[in-house]
């Protein structure tokens, strides 16, 4: 595959998740972290939101990061002026392209909206800015109209066109078809922006990349509007492990980044969340733990250290003899198979009662209660 760029929008679409509000320090810390691990481009916010947002964006801009910085704008001149006031050199200008959005938001006046887009692109270019255009709701747009808007954006001087599955209604097959069509007719790069309303955001982002999109929008932990966006950590690791595409990003810090964003957003990551959930490298089931003890590749698609995790074997309702013996032996306890089975039976009962796996301390207490003479 060709050179793919991540344009992370945790600080824009991520923060649009209902109830999430980063302060300046948090925005700066997230931007610094993303930059430090090698993320190529950051959509840092919406300058039109006013003073607070502008202050945060200016603070990020003053860091002189390696990542390119992009401000999000409507096709409104005052929005572009606010981006300029932040000292940004790259602006993203969005317009809705679906019939339903143009009707509801612009009373069907698509010509007016296209003229505004043209004026904004022209103004931004005159100010020496680099311009990207976003087709909001591209996935539900009439294909010919979408094509026209993208072609016009290119003609008017935009350097990239963003295909947005704004309400997450595509599947990977349709994403591939639609993005491939745009890629084949435009000479500027396409960016893919996906939402997770049906749990397909990452799959659709990958399908867009497969179809030739050179840039992909992500957010840390998949944070974002409604069900969120394609998760940065999922896109990076899927590209690396499934497609052998290394984006040059230091993946071993992905867990720390996830924790930073979880704290700043007040939105915890569910334990089974891909890549960064706390169960990602936790093995309880006897058959799995036995396999992993022989060779971790049996039940792990990549090594925990690759993303900052450590492997955990936990003892609970589904555990078997091998993992129990392994853990006890680490504490100098060697039981015969009957004794091990007896402990396992109690573990199962206790796990059901406690509705969780047991801690090592609880397990050692169980063994000592049994008073096996050779157990210490
Ligand atoms: C799919 C997306 O994620 S789009 C990004 C959405 N993000 C956000 O809305 C978060 C930040 N937004 C804000 O702070 C505010 O909405 C602002 C500052 C942008 C605008 O605030 P307000 O002036 O109070 O307007 P409000 O939000 O109520 O309504 C949106 C206005 O933008 C217009 N608008 C929406 N999209 C666009 C667009 N792409 N280009 C031009 N105008 C647009 C609407 O028609 C409406 O205009 P009107 O006031 O003339 O009727
Ligand atoms: O940039 C755009 O055009 C809109 C981006 C967006 O957040 C969306 O469509 O979901």
Model description:
The structure is a single chain. With 376 residues, the chain is α/β, with parallel strands linked by helices. The chain is built from 15 helices and ten strands. It has an eight-stranded parallel barrel with strand order 1-2-3-4-5-6-7-8, surrounded by nine helices. The protein has a two-stranded parallel ribbon with strand order 9-10. Helix 8 packs parallel to helix 9 (201-210). The relative contact order is 0.10. The mean pLDDT is 97. The structure holds acetyl coenzyme *A and 2-oxoglutaric acid. Residues 4-255 form the Pyruvate carboxyltransferase domain. GO terms for molecular function: homocitrate synthase activity. It is an enzyme of class 2 (transferase). Keywords: Nitrogen fixation, Transferase.
Task: Give a quick rundown of the structure.
This protein has helices spanning 10-14, 24-36, 51-61, 77-85, 99-106, 110-126, 143-155, 172-185, 201-210, 232-241, 254-265, 286-294, 321-330, 337-354, 360-370; strands spanning 5-8, 41-45, 68-74, 90-96, 130-136, 160-165, 190-194, 215-218, 282-283, 312-313. It is of the alpha/beta class.
Set out the fold topology.
Layout: E1 5-8, H1 10-14, H2 24-36, E2 41-45, H3 51-61, E3 68-74, H4 77-85, E4 90-96, H5 99-106, H6 110-126, E5 130-136, H7 143-155, E6 160-165, H8 172-185, E7 190-194, H9 201-210, E8 215-218, H10 232-241, H11 254-265, E9 282-283, H12 286-294, E10 312-313, H13 321-330, H14 337-354, H15 360-370
Parallel strand pairs: 1-2, 1-8, 2-3, 3-4, 4-5, 5-6, 6-7, 7-8, 9-10
Helix pairs in contact: 2-3, 2-11, 8-9, 9-10
